[in-house]
Amino acid sequence: MKSKMMKMAAVTGAVVLTLCSLAGCGSNGDSGNAGTGSSEVESSVAANNTAETDTQEESSSVQETGTELSGTILMVGSTSMEKLANALAESFMNEHQGVTVNAEFVGSSAGVEAVNNGTADIGNSSRNLKDEEKEAGAVENIVAIDGIAVCVDPANSVTGLTRQQLTDIYTGAVTNWSEVGGSDGPIIVVGREAGSGTRGAFEEILGVEDACAYANELDSTGAVMAKVASTPGAIGYVSLDAVDDSVVALALEGVEATAENIKAGDYFLSRPFVMATKGEISAQSELIQAWFDYVLGEEGQSVAQTVGLIPVN
To answer: Does the model's pTM come out above 0.70?
Structure first.
């Protein structure tokens, strides 16, 4: 009996050992499989995340490229606005490599006509728009304020004029510098051609439209400057930002022609610089709207100030 019980215990122990061994192997096997599966999942997630990031970056790059500006802007108009237009164009193109800005300087009236008949995107005018130009569809977008300087040659002893004296000179009521405190000598009255924005603004402010006694009518700001500088006794008007050492700008009513005095409202000969569009800015192409966002924004207004103009914003 005792022998039989010992045999049964031995068998039971063997079975237990076998089961334990099998359980241990099974546990190790499961652990190994679990570790391999976890590694594969983590690798898959990492790969998916990388692919998703790459896709997002690619999408962002495509979006940026798709929204980058491109195309051509054509401005036509005022010769007085040449310095401003060129400075703005250069700065804008530096920021937008796909954009070309071209400018033609043929006078304010021609510029507004060009934008109204659709041959230009923007009509530059160095005066307020006329009612008939607005009725034809042109919209007045003022981008800066300019002063009109009245200049004489450097040898002239006169340093300032009253408003009335200036009016009398341009209408021919006064013809000799001795009549306004200067040396004896004829006054050579120089002005711009018909259609010039500078001429239109000058004559309108003084109230002498179609009443000026011009000795010379020239077709650009530079031509007026050169004529006055080289002609003893000459007097002419030009955009303030164009004045250089070749001429002397006269004080008017005792006020010097400076941006500060114009901004304060103390110097009476000033006018707007207008970039006219056919219809409102909001109705223009994306490129033209971006141009006006720039011109009327902080950077564009800084450019206007740099060339001697008064910002409007």
So the answer is: no
